[in-house]
Amino acid sequence: MSLLVVGSVALDSVETPFGRADDVLGGSATFFSASASHLAPVKVVGIVGSDYPFDELKRTFANRPVDLAGIEHANGSSFRWRGRYRHDLNVAETLETHLGVFSNFAPKIPASFRKTPYVFLGNIDPRLQLDVLSQVEKPKLVVCDTMNFWIESRRQDLINLLGHVDAITLNDAEARQLTETNNLVKAARWIMAKGPRFVIIKKGENGALMFTKDGVFLAPAYPLEEVFDPTGAGDSFAGGFMGYIARSGDTSESNLRRAVIYGSVMGSFAVEQFSVKRLLSVTPQEIATRVAEFRKLVAFEDILA
Amino acid sequence: MSLLVVGSVALDSVETPFGRADDVLGGSATFFSASASHLAPVKVVGIVGSDYPFDELKRTFANRPVDLAGIEHANGSSFRWRGRYRHDLNVAETLETHLGVFSNFAPKIPASFRKTPYVFLGNIDPRLQLDVLSQVEKPKLVVCDTMNFWIESRRQDLINLLGHVDAITLNDAEARQLTETNNLVKAARWIMAKGPRFVIIKKGENGALMFTKDGVFLAPAYPLEEVFDPTGAGDSFAGGFMGYIARSGDTSESNLRRAVIYGSVMGSFAVEQFSVKRLLSVTPQEIATRVAEFRKLVAFEDILA
Question: Chain A residues with CB inside 8 Å of B296's CB?
Fold first, then answer.
């Protein structure tokens, strides 16, 4: 079954201790699609300016089940993000954010996209995320993402949105900020009390925690020796997670756990190169191998008393 | 089989958001013993001053296989640590450290302790840790701990010590500081190149990583809703780890993994109350239940392509 993603389609300029890249393909919807399209067809809704290298985006996804028909072309400049990572690759330093046409983004879901069963609301204004939901027809699963900016500036709208989604993904700092609670178990419970039936807290190199009514699942992060560029890891995680669910059509607890592992696997590939490069080159065999490595990473045999 | 621990026997005064405790039993050897003695007999080498409530320590371990005959009684005041945790319980703020008789500690291993097969060198001057090794006879396994203070002040001695131990436990910040490497996979490799056959990097609420020649094992931290006092978690982890190995007499890769889980389990109990209180009240059944919960925390069923 297919996926709908609404989010940013941007140009990133990134400096890491290992190199730099200028005006490369980025944005939450781009990373999400590059990741999820290994598992299920993806329909993208976003906006680009007149300066966007759209042909490059088309070529990039030419051999992938990624439908770009929902990307609006507007007059003006595209969303650009410029950032730097120093030695602590967990911390992105934003040098410049240029919203351009993204500041007037009002997602319009094409008629042919409205019955998509699995919906991911990338990190945009929660009022727009809610508006997207009014344009889709009875999706099976809706997951939203967010960030500190919206928690600060649109707190009540975000809390309102929580009443309309099945789940939210956010990082540990965002979970603490949103819930004003330091303990992540309590933070997850706070969020679930507002509506979502599960919460995924992403912790970068420390893995991810999924909280459901049944308990907690902890997915490790793959201990990479070379993290080249962390940009897009969270959206790639979301792509792997949603892609696995869309492929299987199963939102049971045990399948959600498998989906979290696929999310972690795709996130671990995303950071190996700039932009979506590694997500595009990775093969089904490499994905399967890394899933097996994740299993080995946490495996311990039965303990006898 | 039995364990030898050399470390501090202290009095802690701790403030957390949930309460305070003054002059309670603390120190690396104390936490280690309270934890490990659930699994194997422990022989303690340390030093206390004339003001130490030694009867309280004896009563505390009265029903445990903990041999306190290696604790030296010196004239002067005992080692005291006073610290505070604010809302981020991962960060201890040291308010006062009073070394007292600990500043002249020169561990003397009693003759009856010298053939102990499993040795844990708690966090003391690496020159003293090495000196302990000259006093023991062919132990089966030697594991040392350390801290930022020794990495800064006794760096070369610590590196020298690495050539004489089987393993080291240290936290992620310490691993980065010692190896001058941000990436933990590289940091572990750096340490193993100096001698140890395995390295355990403790990450507090983010679990622990064990690096061996065969690969990496990731143990989750138990997602506790109430962390009451994190003091002693690392030493309690070491106690569970070494205790499990001493009980089983097995240092194979698969048994080391089980031991890491026992370490994580005992660490998770340690933080539930002040001092060693929870470590003393915990039952074998509670330990077994939490081991099972750790398994459930990371379990995911086979993924089919």
Answer: 215
B266 Cα to chain A: minimum distance (Å): 15
The residue behind tokens 């699942």 is A217
CB contact under 8 A, B220 and A225: no
How far is it, in rounded angstroms, from Cα B259 to Cα B263?
A: 6
B207 in A contact zone (CB under 8 Å): yes
Contact of A180 with chain B, judged by CB distance below 8 Å, is answered with no
- Does A295 reach chain B within 8 Å, measured CB to CB? yes
**Residues from chain B contacting residue A215 (CB–CB below 8 Å):** 296-297
**pLDDT of A172-226, one tens digit each?**
999 999 999 999 999 999 999 999 999 999 999 899 999 999 899 999 898 888 8
Q: Which residues contact B286 (CB under 8 A, 6 or more apart)?
A: B269
Q: Do B183 and A298 touch (CB under 8 A)?
A: no
Structure tokens at A104: 């007037």
Q: What CATH number was assigned to the domain covering residues B3-298?
A: 3.40.1190.20
CB contact under 8 A, B89 and A297: no
Q: Within 10 A of A263 (CB to CB), how many other CB atoms are there?
A: 29
Report how far residue B116's alpha carbon sits from residue B146's, in angstroms, rounded to the nearest whole number. Answer: 21
* Position B303 confidence tier, pLDDT thresholds 50, 70, 90: low
Amino acid (one-letter) located at A295: R
Helices A28-36 and A233-248 pack at an angle, to 10 degrees, of 40
- Name the residue ranges covered by the structural domains of chain B: 3-298
A272: which DSSP letter? Answer: T
| Entry pTM | 0.91
Distance from chain centroid for Cα B80: 18
Helix (H/G/I), strand (E/B), else coil: A248: helix
**Interface pTM, i.e. ipTM:** 0.86
Distance from CA of A74 to the nearest CA of B (A): 40
Task: Write out pLDDT tens, residues A276-286.
Answer: 999 999 999 99
